[in-house]
Amino acid sequence: MIHPESATNYLQRSTSARIPTPYGSYQLFHYVDGRDGKEHLALVMGDVSDGEEVLVRVHSECMTGDTFGSLRCDCGEQLHMAMQRIAETGRGIVIYLRQEGRGIGLAEKLRAYNLQDEGYDTVDANLMLGHQADEREYWAAVEILADLAVRSVRLLTNNPAKIEDLRGYGIAITERVPMQPSIHVDNAAYLQTKVARMRHLLNLPPAPPTLAGSSLPADLTARVSLLQERIAQHRAQRGTPYFTLAYAQSLDGSIAAQRGQPLALSGNVSMTLTHALRAAHDAILVGVGTLLADDPRLTVRRVAGSDPRPVVLDSTLRTPPTARIFEHPCAPLILTTARADAATRTALTARGAEIVVLPADVRGQVDLAAANAALADHDLHSVMVEGGATVLARFVVARSVNYAVVTVAPRLVGGLPALQSEETARTGVARLLDVSYTPAGDDLIIWGEPAWTA
């Protein structure tokens, strides 16, 4: 280990170049360790020449997470989150240190992964291989900051040990800027270990369901896990909610015999899948017409998992105070317009609803762009849009769908089509890419990502 008093003049800056990224233009500085030739990097945005309170991320290399997008850890997500935060601020530095696997190297990290698959946590796996829990050093970051004339930093980190180490080298840290990760099936235990055994400062959201013990077949369980990965990647890279369109239809495309009348289409297996999908999202969104026709509970009952928050698009507040969503463990979020009656707002608020008044579009309905922003403001990062026909069509027309899961039941109904409207006929819709087909009892599940037509 290099002690603070001797951490000088090991690194030499060799060159730099402009690097355009999805988050804006950075200048990439290349450094070489004069002792062993190891390379380190600094990604700099904006003017940091005053050297004061610069937003800084000291990031240790993670080939699996940074390059391949592995979801076993939160490293890749933190890297992209730091670049986005710096871009939003207008200036800052990502210091990229070449110390893979918390300092043990890539090969040993992969061996540790194998031990983790046997049930050991990330700390015990490292110890069993003869390493420390964390072998990283931060002297190179200190030299890079000195080379860039940075005197004080706002540090993007959840790791108190990193703060202590940098302060030990004399770095003035004026603020710790938290980096809240996504949590899902593949990284939940890893993040819990970070909190319990490595003192990381995290407020972990509820983990999505593992589906263990449910009657959901393995291929459907795998598809839900893949969707969770898509959601996690979207959250790491963008600040907008992820919308999954999920509904059941007959062979002829009907979702009901006629508008306003419920029709049970899903079989037992596909209904279990619906509950698994609900548990994989932060919120479930329906239109008020679905409440009036079906009076759904919108909860998770068939698998292990958390209930998503119910969200209702209700432009004129027709939600009945007796609706079963008021029995939901989460307070319903009702998005309405200024046309909604004030007395009705009061009555629904008394039943536990949170009512948000938003602008109306040209048809007098809740503006979807404003609704999407409201969902983000309420920390709802993944939303399952479950119906009914008007809401499904509106999200398709607005091109606000990131993924589609459509259950096709082997029935001919001749009723209400899922997406038939004047707007969809005029604007065109989409085709699904990267399509998968999985059976669910007698039903067929179609999975895909919309590619919008002109």
Structure, explained:
This protein is α/β, with parallel strands linked by helices. It folds into two domains: 159 residues, 3-Layer(aba) Sandwich (Rossmann fold); 235 residues, Dihydrofolate Reductase, subunit A (3-Layer(aba) Sandwich). It has 14 helices and 18 strands. Helix 2 runs parallel beside helix 8 and helix 3 packs across helix 4. It starts with 10 loop residues before the first strand and ends with a strand.
What's the number of domains?
A: 2
Q: What's the arrangement of strands in the largest beta sheet? A: 13-12-11-10-14-8-15-18-17
End-to-end separation in angstroms reads: 59 Å
Structural class: alpha/beta
Cα-atom radius of gyration: 25 Å
How would you name the CATH homologous superfamily of the largest domain? Dihydrofolate Reductase, subunit A
The proportion of residues forming helix, as a percent range, comes to: 25-40%
The strand count comes to 18
Roughly what is the average pLDDT, rounded to an integer? 87
Number of helices: 14
CATH architecture of the largest domain: 3-Layer(aba) Sandwich
At CATH level 3, the topology of the largest domain is Dihydrofolate Reductase, subunit A
Principal-axes shape call: elongated
Biggest beta sheet attributes: 9 strands, mixed
Unreliable stretches (pLDDT < 50, length at least 5) are: 1-7
CATH C-level category of the largest domain: Alpha Beta
Sheet-strand content, in percent, reads 25-35%
